[in-house]
Design brief:
The chain is 75% helix and 0% strand. It has a domain of 63 residues. The chain starts with 8 loop residues before the first helix and ends with a helix. Helix 1 packs antiparallel against helix 2 and helix 1 packs parallel to helix 3. The chain is mostly helical. The model has no long low-confidence stretch (mean pLDDT 89).
């Protein structure tokens, strides 16, 4: 009888699980920020569009996490999915930095 955990599945869990948790944390933080702060350097439409993109990414992430958990870490996530999440988190970081730099000390 063969090993029920293919080689690399432990590595996948070790790398992917914390990465998904990081995305979950940063999307939640970005969502709260965008829902509670009014950003003077963005139009309301731009801020709403960014918030919508964060919400959509959270939905995608939830689905990916459910599949990952349901398969006991046997399913990876394509980089074509992860790259836009990374870009969105980076964009949110930049928006947050700009907001905090614009505030009086």
């Amino acid at each position: 009888m063969g090993d029920s955990n293919p080689p690399g599945s432990d590595l996948l869990k070790t790398v992917l699980e914390p990465l998904l948790e990081d995305f979950q944390y940063w999307f939640a933080r970005s969502r709260k920020f965008l829902e509670t702060e009014r950003l003077s350097f963005m139009s309301e439409q731009e801020q709403s569009a960014l918030l919508l993109r964060v919400k959509q990414a959270q939905d995608e992430l939830s689905t990916a996490k459910m599949l990952f958990t349901a398969t006991d870490g046997q399913v990876g996530i394509d980089m074509a999915m992860i790259n836009p999440w990374h870009q969105l988190v980076t964009e949110c970081w930049h928006v947050s930095m700009r907001f905090h730099q614009a505030r009086p000390a």
